[in-house]
Amino acid sequence: MVLASDADDAAAVDAVRQHHAELAGRLGAHVDALLAAATAHGGNGFPQARTAALAFLSGYLMPHAAAEERALYPAAARSERLRLLVDAMVAEHRVLEGLVEELRSAAEPARAAATSAALRVLFDTHLSKENDLVLPVVAADPHTSLTGILDGMHELLGEEAHGHGHAAEAVPATPAKGSCGCGGHDDVDIPVLDVRAVPHAIRHATVFGAFDAIPDGGSLMLVAPHDPIPLLRQLTARAGGGVAVDYEERGPEAWRLRLTRA
Question: If you average pLDDT over every residue of the chain, what do you get?
């Protein structure tokens, strides 16, 4: 629960957290694709996976970080409680930038995959601090309007990301080890998104983000703690009906669903 100065700011906190979850979900899909490509025979699919990951990082994740530094962080730094934390958050952005460049220049698939995994770990911890420490303090300040800070900042709220339209960023399918390549269900290492440990408040947004990175005809394996019927309704509406769902396991410990962009 967020103790905001008004209802609009409380809603703004939720909107930013939802966008953070979408970004984390999309990043996770790209990292999984890079890891699969790095372990595939001959690094098959690696160039496409890296190109897609860099398109997302350069086109969405890093602009989001830059927007935070322009708008959110200056407001947060006015709080003495957050000043040192904001300095550390800016420093983490520089580390993220360095990891993006390392991914861009990595000659070996294994190094690129390791770099992307490190980037995901840092980004996840970075988001936790923003969600749990920075946003609540800014929202609770009666002299600061978080809604005003976010007004028009599409990079912070992600309105442009709703729906599918990121062809350059789409995660490529990676042939599995020993596969026949004949196009059947078992011929690709598809990204796996296990949301059982993801907090319920951001679970749907995490799935939306991961599915945004899936290309036409591509699939995502979703592992959920229950039959995600409400999520499937929302995802189908968001994708304009273009989602095919195949249940591969129906509880009781987990529900595994193959989600394919039709």
Answer: 86
